[in-house]
Design goal:
Length: 303
Amino acid sequence: MTKLNQPKTPTSQRDFAYTLRSFLGYLEGTGKAAHTIKNYRLDLLSFHAYLTSAKGRGDLARVTPEDVEHFHARLRTQGLKTNTRRRKLLTIQRFLAYLSKRKKVDETLARKFPTPHKIERIPDTISSDKLIEAIRQLPSETLLDARNRALLWTLAETGCLVSEIAHLRGSDWKGRQVNIPGKAARGVPISGELAEAIERLERLSGAENPTSLFQGFNKFGSLGQPISSRGVELLVRHHAARLGFPKLTPRIFRHSVVIKWLAEGINRDEIQRRLGLKTAYAFRTYDALLSSKKPCKNNTKPS
């Protein structure tokens, strides 16, 4: 079929495809994660499909606040969860604000419209003390065993992210503290036993200041470069059943250490700092967790 005989794509669809690509490129340029960008794309495609089918038009320049309200009503009839509906509406809101700044839609559409309140799910946790005790029993004779043991122990005591642990160098460990680098640089106290596990790993590795203390490995030995985030996730999954926690994930390490710190009497601001969370809003995931785990005060007076 020649180009002259090919069916033409409706102008509204071409405009939408162009603006969607532009918006996704903007998100990528601002550092949004690939998973986040994927969700933005799917949410906007579903909104455009709704406008096309239910309203008979896909022209975003003609979108009204009522269209968004009707779309939300459609989402409710589909039985979508509150947080899912909230995410989709916020995606539309941000997209329209983006278009408004570029004079593609009326500026009134950039205004915020009502969205459901987010429901924070209480994160899964386990006993950090039991987890650390199980990690303590892991072998450490070989370089690989020592790396696995020290890495898991570091996750359990510091709650750092998998993306952060890969970049820890030998020089980041100072006695009873590890200095986690990156955008949320901070110092986190550690136990003397973990410090000893790190010293043992350094002796076995034979490198004073490697690119990363936690090197990646394959069947032939060290790769000479930091372990990847995926590598950390696979390492945790491999050891989960052996440690006695089959559903263990890196995120559970992080959530569980919050409970441990709380039980030790560490205040919320200090916990937030240790986690590398810059704002109280970023800390919101832990609000329900903290309120459900607050230690009870003993009001019994001594006789």
